[in-house]
Amino acid sequence: xxxxxxxxxxxxxxxxxxxxxxxxxxxxxxxxxxxxxxxxxxxxxxxxxxxxxxxxxxxxxxxxxxxxxxxxxxxxxxxxxxxxxxxxxxxxxxxxxxxxxxxxxxxxxxxxxxxxxxxxxxxxxxxxxxxxxxxxxxxxxxxxxxxxxxxxxxxxxxxxxxxxxxxxxxxxxxxxxxxxxxxxxxxxxxxxxxxxxxxxxxxxxxxxxxxxxxxxxxxxxxxxxxxxxxxxxxxxxxxxxxxxxxxxxxxxxxxxxxxxxxxxxxxxxxxxxxxxxxxxxxxxxxxxxxxxxxxxxxxxxxxxxxxxxxxxxxxxxxxxxxxxxxxxxxxxxxxxxxxxxxxxxxxxxxxxxxxxxxxxxxxxxxxxxxxxxxxxxxxxxxxxxxxxxxxxxxxxxxxxxxxxxxxxx
Length: 409
Hints:
This protein has 409 residues and is an alpha/beta fold. The protein has helices at residues 14-23, 37-43, 61-70, 74-79, 88-100, 114-122, 134-148, 159-175, 190-202, 219-225, 250-257, 266-278, 290-297, 317-330, 347-357, 390-402; strands spanning 2-3, 12-13, 33-35, 47-51, 81-84, 104-108, 126-129, 151-152, 181-185, 207-213, 260-264, 306-310, 334-342, 361-368, 378-386, 407-408. Helices cover 43% and strands 19% of the residues. Helix 12 (266-278) packs across helix 14 (317-330). The longest helix has 17 residues, at 159-175. It is elongated, with a radius of gyration of 25 Å.
């Protein structure tokens, strides 16, 4: 089966993906497939996690980068390669180049997380920090390519890249032949397009659902318009799918082969990341958790067995801390409230004793006596509590009200 691409490249076919799979033998890992009892119970059918977060370099990006660089001529290899990325693509290009003996230069934004910058250097690339946003970094890399003759390695919009990423789809069919739905995050579309090319050629009955962050969802308006549409701005914590315009090659493949594209909110991404960590014991970046976020947002709408692709695990520790906190809030695990007390000795101790009865853990407390809005004998207390979930939050508030406190959540 042949699928069309636009531009000067020949159509992509299943044999391209199979050829990429042979090329990646001994280079890319055949990542594991883990069942999730929790997600399975929500969906009402088996749910499996395809763990590309455990791939070399921490994401699927090595697959496409290696296939692309392997296809260069000797003259092109001698000129070296250049890429622009805030993280995963940078590391994939760096390692692939090192394995193939090709010099690589990677441009990264000035504010790129230090662990990702360090990892890219350790994989063998020369890292140049340029620009505050990825668009500026991309322009610098393209200018470098024109000046030096280095080959620009696009993060998603090249047939070799798409074929390399499509090997994930072949592995899914081998590991879970009964699969009925595959859920995968979409940024520029390389991974979703590659998986779709492989899977639809062999199993056209499998439903493929793409997932975008609501703040960087370029595919829905593009699909409505019938051509790639650039967003005016993108804003999401999921930097792995933070792309403002679909690729010219990936768009027609997604349009033809991906059955549906959904969007998820930042709260849903946070909750999904937290679930991956708590229930699956998987460190997953927000982009990698986007398929899980889609499952959590509407679990009964997926026909099982379902495979959710965890596309990457390269999350900066500082972002992880913020995202986990955000996820705890979104999951109802934190409760913030204010209440007023009579300003007398023992009043605060009595409040804390009541919270002990409610089995709530106090994370932070602020006791104010000097606010002019308070009465002469009043004090205000602001509390931040750790709870067991939304139902426990309601129980804690009810216990405080029953004890006579006026509670404002």
